[in-house]
Amino acid sequence: MYISPPKDWWDAGDPSLPIRTPAMIGCSFVVNRKFFGEIGLLDPGMDVYGGENIELGIKVWLCGGSMEVLPCSRVAHIERKKKPYNSNIGFYTKRNALRVAEVWMDDYKSHVYIAWNLPLENPGIDIGDVSERRALRKSLKCKNFQWYLDHVYPEMRRYNNTVAYGELRNNKAKDVCLDQGPLENHTAILYPCHGWGPQLARYTKEGFLHLGALGTTTLLPDTRCLVDNSKSWLPQLLDCDKVKSSLYKRWNFIQNGAIMNKGTGRCLEVENRGLAGIDLILRSCTGQRWTIKNSIK
User: Fold this and answer.
1) Comparing C-alpha atoms, which of 53, 156, 178 is closest to residue 111?
2) Cα–Cα dist 38/19, whole Å
3) Which residue range or ranges hold the Ricin B lectin domain (predicted)?
């Protein structure tokens, strides 16, 4: 949620002007004490580290406030050499992010689950009781998250067209997953499954099959999508918006079924070459099946 100043700020030619921001770092800020208390301070249900600044940014905007960066302000932040809390900071960052999503993000909460490759139902993380925070939001008559996107953070990418996401596995090679491989090769590969960003597949209502960590804003490149250019036996990973043929970037896929390109009729399959390894290829369909980790109902 930290983005470059908007064009109108640059055009004004005054580097001292305040910059509207959707959120800010949580370690140093100035706030109206009365307003801060009215909106519930920081969420006391968050644990250890991470997410409190995002919760505050969304809450401030939705509940009648605003947030700015003051370029001429000077704040010293003295950080410890070693943080005194639990070493598993990543877990708590994830937990707190889910808490923000469940209280404030409405129909867009799925974005957080997709980004962390967690199922929407029973993600296996106890986020604590959020009923008081939801009641606070209701009592303050805060706006919905769509308003935040429309008026505060229009640069945020939207992924509401997602129907399934997570690792993609083939029934003929279950220990490897679809992977984006080296970015410069523009070719999808197979790689031992780990479920991190390079293996985050996302299948959409339009039939696009994206691969890689979610993009953050429209100011930066989006996740590339799988393409059958009808010539190569290798599946290409390209910028979807730059692929002229709509059908070459669209795929038919259902859980535990084939992945077939709508333009060429070829299927995404694996070929076991023994000691030489396993290849990811495009060819006439032979009945191979794919499963994706999570689905959105």
Assistant:
1) 156
2) 24
3) 164-293
Amino acid at 254: I
Taking the C-alpha atoms of residue 252 and residue 50, their distance in angstroms, rounded to an integer, is 39
Domain check: are 147 and 174 in the same one? no
Residue 20 in any domain: the answer is: yes
Query: Which candidate, 69, 101, 77, places its Cα nearest to that of 4?
Result: 69
Cα–Cα distance measured from residue 135 to residue 83, given in angstroms and rounded to the nearest whole number? 33
- Sign, CA torsion 111/117/120/123: negative
The reply to whether 171 and 197 lie within a common domain is yes
Are residues 240 and 191 located together in one domain of the fold?
Answer: yes
DSSP states of 54-73: HHHHHHHHHTT---EE-TT-
Give the containing element (helix H, strand E) for 281.
Answer: strand 278-283
Place of tokens 């997570």: 166
Neighbours of 255 (CB within 10 A): 12
Does the pTM surpass 0.85? The reply is yes
Please write the tens of the pLDDT for every residue from 275-292.
Answer: 678 999 999 999 999 999
Structural domain of residue 109, as residue ranges? Answer: 7-151
Q: Tell which residue, 268, 224, 265, has the closest CA to residue 248.
A: 265
